Amino acid sequence: MKHTPEPWHVGTMSRTTLGRESTDHYIENDSGYIIASVSHLLSYRKQHRANAERIVACVNACAGLDPTAVPLMYEALCALRSGTIEGFRTYALTSHNAQLIDEALSKAEGR
Description:
single chain, alpha+beta, three-stranded antiparallel β-sheet, 3 helices, 3 strands, about 40% helix
């Protein structure tokens, strides 16, 4: 079975239950179909929003890709940057390409 097509978005809904206000975060597609709901426990509200945003970012970034290939692509990019791809002749990277790789790896690693 295939997952719901991208793009996905984070939605927020405020509600009152038994006199207490709460905020629910959910993940939806362009048609407004709710794909998943993220818990609304008051003590973790910001964390749940961040979790929903991370899920959406990952799904949208992998659109058209086999997500199981992402770790291998990351490893290959690291190897290309360091020039350690075993069995392959390494070529000098242009400064532009080296900068793109550095930026991509820094962002991926949270640097």
